[in-house]
Structure formats: structure tokens, C-alpha cells
Amino acid sequence: MMSQQTQLAEVFETTFGVAPTVNIQAPGRVNLIGEHTDYNDGFVFPAAINFGTWIAATPRQDRVIDVVALDYDGERVRFSLDDIAHVDTATWSNYVRGVCKVLLELFPDLNGANLAVTGNVPQGAGLSSSASFEVALVKMFEALYNLNITGVKAALLGQKAENTFVGCSCGIMDQLISAMGKQGQAMLLDCRTLDFEHTPLPDSHVILIVNSNVKRGLVDSEYNVRREQCEEAAKIMGVTALRDADLALLALHKQAMTDPVYRRARHIITENQRTVSMFNALNAGRIAEVSELMAQSHVSMRDDFEITVPPIDYLVEIIDEVVGVEGGVRMTGGGFGGCVVALTPNSHVSEIMTAVEERYHARTGYQPTFYTCSAEQGAFA
Ligand code: GLA
């Protein structure tokens, strides 16, 4: 079978009549722990993965963007950099439009581009197909026109496109790890200072992602509501962000909060602590502690932040029964469906798959998909 990249180059040539001069790849990500903490100025611990978005491109002499999307039946969209509008058809193109719009604020004289795009990050699964697309687009412009853009800046631009143009108030985690991930390593990121530190993943373990294939509904609206609730809790406690609160402060203000707002804040405060603890535990090879922290994180997302769904909880239960204290498992990503991530000894992978295959569909009616992942380089790393 022809590889996705070969196919991309072929479609580019057939469409534009020349070979691409720039070939870009930006990875998706899996978050090991630290969920919804990023927009609370907190800590996250993701890794870039061996699934991503590829772009083939050539520069243009004018201000036109001409883009063909392999994964949407070769759908082709053209627009001018002088007239960028949000569209309701070919909605994938809003990422291109949004990224162009934020780039133009920095580089107003930017020229257009011919480009072809494809990817293999499952969409809507919580593995950041959008962020990998945004970062790939920024990288493409950087490469086409020799722009001076660092990886951190690229991540901020991608996030801004998503916040202001696509309409999701996401944090910085996904774009930053897609830009700055390192092969074989996970990254502890301080989302306030944007300082980060990489740490090797243990050779004895593998990242196994299981897609629940529960179609995520209302993700953006629920996501934005969570963000507002966190901001409300911070305001009530008189802190800049939930990063600055602890459980004692939260207890002092409990009466002033609705119960959901209180529990949202409790998730963020405890999740921040767990994220730093997990980084330290993994560094020191204390896998039983990693196991416990991931389990606690899942319970907190389920009961306090309320972003899991029953099929996901069941997947976590099945996998936890197999890995026990030798590894960890939890939901990963924004929530309301999507994937679970397991950090498991290599020797347990087939047993996990068998257990999930035997039990998950029978109980939930959904078919699982498995991805054995490695940690990869970010597009700007
Ligand atoms: C989505 C967002 C991220 C982050 C996660 C939850 O992936 O894009 O910024 O908030 O959800 O941790």
C-alpha cells in the first residue's frame, strides 16, 4: 500500500503541476496526566505521538491560499489572505483560515501558498488532530518564507487561531507539545511560564491508547463551560488562576460556591499536585505511585470535573484489572468520549487487548480501536 506521505506528494503534483518544495509533519499528542489544568495556569504532562498531520506545499507570488484536503475526498478550497472569513462548509478549512489570520497580524505582507494536507490522528478522539494541523500550518509558513518563529510562538499562534477563530477556548498544552515534543520523552509543562522539562519514558513500558469510539458531542460547549466554572472559582477565592489555590483556601470559600464549581476547582487543585508528583515518580521509577496517581486522576475527572462517560469508565476498569500496580490508566484529553491512555509493561499489551475485546463491546455496544504509541519529535523540536 502507498504510504500516506507518498500519496500526499502525488496528489500535490497532480493538483498543482509541480513537486512540493516543503514537506512538514506535526504530531498529535497524548496527555499522561494533568487534564484541564492548562488553562488554569497549571501543569500538564503530555507526549507527542507517532500520529500526525502532513503538509506538502509551495510558495506563491500572490496572496491566494489554495488547499486540497486528502482526507475529505480531495476537497479543494481557495481564499485570499485579504478576505478571510469563517465558513460553515468545509469546516476543516477554518483551521487554515484561522492560522493565516493570526499569522498576518505578525507578518502582514505574507504571500499565499499551494498546499495539500493529510493526517492520521483520529479526529474527535482527544488526541489533538486540530492542534497538530495548526502547528503544521505555522511550520509550513515558517519553512516557505523563512519566518522567524520559535516553537513556543508557533504554539501560541495555533492556540490563538483556535480561541479566536475556530471558537474553542482551549489551553496551550496541545499546540506546545506538538511543536516541542521529544522522541522517547514526555514533557512536564508549566502552562503559566511555558517552561518545560523532558523526561524519558521507561523502556520497560509502552503507551497504549484505546479509543472508546464514543462520538464526542457538545465538546466545545461543555469545554467552554468548564473553563468558565474554573474562572468563577478562582474569582471567588481571589486568586489569578486555580494554580494559585490550595485545598485549604478552597475549603474557606466552599460556602460561596455552587457544588459543581467547588468540585471543578477541587479537580484542578488536586490534578496539579498529581501532575508534578507523577513527573517525579516516573523519573524515580516508582511505577506503583504512577499507577495510583493515574487512577486518582481518572476518578477526579469522573466525579469532580464530570468529563468522562460510562464506556470510558468501563475501559479504564477493564485495563486497570490487567495492569494493576505495574502501570497506570486514565482517560486522556478534553473528555466526553475519546480515548484512554495506559502506561503498561510491554508484556501486558496483548492481555489488555484481549480483555478489552472480550468485554468492552459486549457491555457498551462500541468497538474499541488500539494504538500502540511511541513518543516523537515535535515539529519545531
Ligand atoms: C483539550 C484542549 C487542551 C486541554 C485539554 C484538557 O485537548 O485543547 O488545551 O485543556 O483538552 O486537558
Draw up the topology in text.
Layout: H1 4-16, E1 22-31, E2 43-44, E3 46-59, E4 64-69, E5 75-80, H2 93-106, E6 113-119, H3 129-145, H4 151-166, H5 173-180, E7 185-190, E8 196-200, E9 205-211, H6 219-237, H7 247-252, H8 259-283, H9 287-303, H10 310-323, E10 328-332, E11 339-345, H11 349-364, E12 369-373
Parallel strand pairs: 4-6
Antiparallel strand pairs: 1-3, 2-7, 3-6, 4-5, 7-8, 9-11, 9-12, 10-11
Bound molecules: alpha-D-galactopyranose.
What does this structure look like?
- By secondary structure, this protein is an alpha+beta fold.
- Helix content is 43%, strand content 21%.
- The chain has a domain at 4-199: Ribosomal Protein S5, domain 2.
- The strands form 3 sheets. The chain has a 5-stranded mixed beta sheet, sandwiched between helices. A 4-stranded antiparallel beta sheet has the order 10-11-9-12. A 3-stranded antiparallel beta sheet has the order 2-7-8, with helices on one face.
- Strand 4 (64-69) and strand 5 form a beta hairpin.
- The longest helix is centred in the C-terminal third of the chain and has 25 residues, at 259-283.
- The protein is globular, with a radius of gyration of 21 Å.
- The chain binds alpha-D-galactopyranose (GLA).
- Alpha-D-galactopyranose binds at residues 31, 35-36, 38-39, 128, 170-171, 173-174, 333-334.
- The site of alpha-D-galactopyranose has 12 residues, from helix 5.
